[in-house]
Amino acid sequence: MLGKFIVFEGIDGAGKTTQLDLLGRELENRGYPVVYTREPGGTRVGELIREILLNPLYGELAPRAEAFLYAAARAQLVAQVIIPALEAGKIVLCDRFVDSSLAYQGFGRGMDILMLEQINRPAIAGLVPDLVLLLDFCCDDAIDRLSRSGRGADRIEQEQQEFYRRVRLGYLSLAGREPGRYNIIDANRPVDLVLCDILKAVGEVLNEVTERNNRA
Ligand code: TYD
User: Which of 21, 64, 96 best tests ligand 1's pocket when mutated (most atoms within 8 Å of CB)?
Assistant: First the structure.
């Protein structure tokens, strides 16, 4: 594949979308062709699936059905957007990919990781990100803020915090399995410092592309 596939991962509120946009603009300024996309969604069909997944109206959605829907939206995105863009030599920046399913459905909701990997195998059709930028964000700060305010976290808030803690640790454990492909970025810092680390991590991937273009 000619292009490069760069994925942003992390818990909600880690600043993925902001950083993805900033990185994309920086790459465009340097003359790289960039494709922006996100999960779930990024295609017409995927956005419809996103509506089912994220709309509280469909609260009856069974966990396995949820996992299949994430995988279905992913399969469409891979086939319709990501593979064609990579074949055309573009840099694809994707807000979440298969690790979101492993971290949220697996580590967060307790579904079997092996089963999730099996569901996702045909969806991703062998596609592996060149780089996963894991924006590691400490959700404890939010709990601290609540307790300092004297309000204390209520049950739902506490459950949510517990969930995000599991998801965060899940991400860190996925990154630990393949340290070469993951870059863990401390996202509890000002936007420009986070971006600086991201640019450093992406630098190696870019060098590869530049060297290849120079040779061509
Ligand atoms: P996202 O678009 O990042 O949320 P937002 O735009 O509100 O920041 O992701 C939507 C939600 O879907 C997010 O809570 C994570 C969840 N998600 C999963 O649980 N599994 C998945 O496979 C994916 C891609 C997302």
Answer: 96
- For ligand 1, atom 17, the nearest C-alpha belongs to 100
Spacing of C-alpha 165 from chain mean position: 16
Ligand 1 neighbours by CB, cut-off 6 Å = 12, 38-40, 54, 70, 95-96, 100-101, 104-105
Nearest CA to ligand 1 atom 23: 100
pLDDT digits (tens, 9 = 90+) for 146-180: 556 666 667 777 888 999 999 999 999 999 999 99
Domains in the chain: ranges and CATH: 4-209 (3.40.50.300)
The alpha carbon of residue 84 and the mean position of all alpha carbons in its chain are separated, in whole angstroms, by: 20
Which tokens go with 132?
């996963």
Q: Please classify residue 95 by burial: count the beta carbons closer than 10 Å to its beta carbon, then call 0-12 exposed, 13-18 middle and 19+ buried.
A: buried
